[in-house]
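Q: Could you write out the predicted structure for this multi-component system? I'm mainly interested in how the pieces pack against one another.
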Amino acid sequence: DAGVTQSPTHLIKTRGQQVTLRCSPISGHKSVSWYQQVLGQGPQFIFQYYEKEERGRGNFPDRFSARQFPNYSSELNVNALLLGDSALYLCASSFRGGADTGELFFGEGSRLTVL
Amino acid sequence: GQQVMQIPQYQHVQEGEDFTTYCNSSTTLSNIQWYKQRPGGHPVFLIQLVKSGEVKKQKRLTFQFGEAKKNSSLHITATQTTDVGTYFCAGVNNAGNMLTFGGGTRLMVKP
């Protein structure tokens, strides 16, 4: 069975541009969470979607948005990119949503570099 | 908001030595999870602890959840080079906030 898949794996953008990152959860998982991991730090929670509804939002500006599709895949959009948005963006799927997700299964991540 | 702190940030050990990382939360947790991230990789789930004072073992790894459910530890006995990576704790507080990760402890093992 395929694990969590993310695309693209690497991308380079310039300040002010917009980016869309994609994630496909493990088959049967209805919850997708997005995390930002800056080099040398722990993952920071951005969003969680469960059954196509937003279930949680972290402390990120409105430039960050996300959505979940009927097939449970998800997109993370970041507008007006800043240098500080350079990070590894991790998608994690789980069977349950809400605070008690149980085990999170992470994808390999999308490494975003903003120049 | 909820904060989860880990110490130490880095730990160098000789292969065969023991290793412990500590996790402390600013709020009482309903449960705590531990993940391992190899260099260049993604976090991989190790375990979840739910009960106050709970102790769980996985081969050479021992996980503890404090009595007050505000702290946790991971102890590795007789480290091996395959243990290299960053170990993260992640907690869910009783207010239902989403899983909050600590800053991680990076373990380096000298053969």
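A: Regarding packing and overall arrangement: The longest strand of chain B covers residues 29-37.
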